[in-house]
Amino acid sequence: MISKLPKWAADLTEKTGSIMTDMKILETVYLNPTIKKIRFQGDISRMNFQIGHANVIRVSDTEFRNYTTSYHNVDEGILDIVFHIHGNGVGSRYIDSLEPQDELRISIPRGKKVYNESIKKQFIFGDETSLGLACSILPIMKKNKHQYQFYFELDDENQNIPELLGLENYTVFSKKNTFRDEEWINELPIFNSDEWNTANFILTGNVKSVQTFRKVLKDNLQGNIYSQGYWLEGKKGL
Questions:
Q1: Is residue 57 part of a domain?
Q2: What is the pLDDT of residues 72-83, one digit of tens each?
Q3: Would residue 27 count as lying in a domain?
Q4: Which of 10, 33, 197, 218 is the least crowded, having the fewest Cβ atoms under 10 Å away?
Q5: Are 13 and 85 contacting, i.e. CB atoms less than 8 angstroms apart?
Q6: PANTHER family attached here (predicted)?
Q7: Residue 102, domain member (yes or no)
């Protein structure tokens, strides 16, 4: 979905029943001032939840943003989203303002396939915007008995968030331009043996970090690489 539309077109899109669903907020939890988890309830029976797909939420008169569901239960009609409230962007301001009992419309999930269940080893990289994807894929990887590893680049105040979300087998790195440095990436443990040579790599989060990590992976390993930048400094509405 286009991230910005004229108000009349945004109104029409939000009213389109084939793609948008009425939801009510049941609960909001701040894991810290910049990470907010919200539980929504509504009829999600026609939503097809796939790993890496995103739901669209209208965040202003003219703008929409993509967010990844971290948990869903169709029978109970609930879905959770973990939001990164960062800076003073229109999306962050809107999400920060949401409270229990607020009502809004959320789109059905859509996106590209990133998970290949036939590959034994799964490697997931991202930042705060990738935490929802990590939460959604973890129970599937455990159920399918994958070997898996998470790498997160997080702001210092968010270093403990993966633990609070119940994630496992993760390594947290500070955001000090580390994943913008090809030489530094080349020294990571995954390149020290052939163990991850044919893994399924899922790279999301900051565009520059994703692009740099992808380049090093392609130069060194033979696994499948799925990448999608969720945001880029100075660019609105990825």
A1: yes
A2: 999 999 999 999
A3: yes
A4: 33
A5: no
A6: FERRIC REDUCTASE, NADPH-DEPENDENT, NADPH-DEPENDENT FERRIC-CHELATE REDUCTASE
A7: yes
Reported pTM? 0.93
Model pLDDT, residue 21: 95
Q: Total structural domains in the chain?
A: 2
Q: In sequence order, what DSSP letters do the residues of the chain get, joined into one string?
A: --SB--HHHHHHHHT-TTTEEEEEEEEEEEEETTEEEEEEEE--TT----TT-BEEEE-SSSBEEEE-EEEEETTTTEEEEEEE--TT-HHHHHHHH--TT-EEEEEPPB------TT-SEEEEEE-GGGHHHHHHHHHHHHHTT-EEEEEEEE-GGGTTHHHHTT--SEEEEE-SSGGG-HHHHHTSGGGSSSTTTT-EEEEEEEHHHHHHHHHHHHHH--SEEEEEEEEBTTB---
Predicted confidence at residue 233, as pLDDT, reads: 75
Residues 130, 225, single domain; the answer is: yes
> What confidence score (pLDDT) does residue 178 get?
85
Q: Measure the CA–CA gap between 99 and 65, rounded to whole angstroms.
A: 18
Domain extent for 14: 7-107
Position 23 scores a pLDDT of 97
CATH number at residue 203: 3.40.50.80
Residues of the chain scoring pLDDT < 70: 1-2, 177, 234-238
- Is 217 in the same domain as 128? yes
The CATH code of the domain that includes 100 is 2.40.30.10
